[in-house]
Specification:
Layout lengths: L4 E3 L4 H10 L4 E3 L5 H6 L7 E4 L8 E3 L5 E3 L5 H6 L1 H6 L1 H10 L2 H6 L2 H5 L6 H4 L15 H4 L23 H7 L3 E4 L3 E4 L2 H16 L5 H9 L2 H10 L1
Parallel strand pairs: 1-3, 2-3
Antiparallel strand pairs: 4-5, 6-7
Helix pairs in contact: 11-12, 12-13
């Protein structure tokens, strides 16, 4: 592992200033993925910014009836929360199936979501990987690629697979998520549109529900999810 400078800010503003002052710096919380990449020298940041003291570790009810999940909520705490287990069981199941208890105790919501898309060749530094080093080549094109993404690929990149399950389950719920210090944003406008179309199509195929399909298409993602639950 290469030498690096370690910073431990006490609030989000200080963390943002440090990141701006040190281009290429990486935020670290649980470190369950980043430290592995640093040991392999796939990631070689000169500065690490520890965000564990920023207070972003709460799960809060929103006025719209949803939940706001803090970036630093540990996977164990998220999976065990009674509101998650009751209303968003797919999240709990995804987290419990995705890692060991030791990893879940350290891994955070934001760290889970912000992992780089990759395949097994990404970790193998003896094989070319355009995701790891642009222009080096893609071993997956002529190698093992079963289960890789079928969309979003190119001649230079065969794999665009997500390494975690939390983001996929959130996308299936058309959720708004809190990413890092920057604030809330939708996972992807296009993803949300596709989810709404798929939900509407499913509703249209059910007896006596064409009106529900129209309501879903016109609704916000949160409202669309509510309508789908009531069907």
């Amino acid at each position: 592992m290469r030498p690096f400078t370690y910073h431990r800010p006490s609030d989000p503003a200080e963390a943002a200033r440090l990141a701006a002052a040190h281009p290429g710096a990486r935020f670290i919380a649980g470190g369950t993925n980043l430290l592995d990449l640093m040991k392999l020298q796939i990631e070689t940041p000169g500065n690490l910014i520890d965000v564990n003291r920023l207070g972003l570790d709460r799960i809060e009810d929103t006025d719209e009836g949803g939940l706001r999940i803090g970036a630093l909520v540990r996977n164990t705490d998220l999976a065990a929360d009674q509101r998650i287990r009751r209303d968003y069981a797919v999240l709990a199941r995804a987290l419990l199936s995705g890692a060991s208890a030791q990893l879940r105790n350290k891994a955070t919501t934001a760290g889970n979501l912000l992992q780089r898309t990759r395949c097994s060749y990404f970790y193998d530094t003896t094989k070319p990987c355009n995701r790891r080093t642009p222009g080096l080549g893609c071993a997956a094109i002529g190698g093992f690629n079963r289960g890789h993404a079928i969309m979003g690929t190119s001649e230079a990149l065969k794999a665009n697979a997500s390494p975690e399950k939390l983001g996929l389950s959130l996308a299936s719920l058309a959720s708004a998520v809190l990413l890092g210090i920057g604030g809330a944003r939708w996972l992807s406008d296009q993803v949300d549109k596709n989810l709404l179309r798929a939900t509407a199509a499913d509703a249209a195929n059910k007896p006596g529900s064409p009106d529900k399909a129209k309501q879903i298409m016109a609704a916000t993602p949160a409202k669309a999810l509510q309508i789908a639950k009531e069907m």
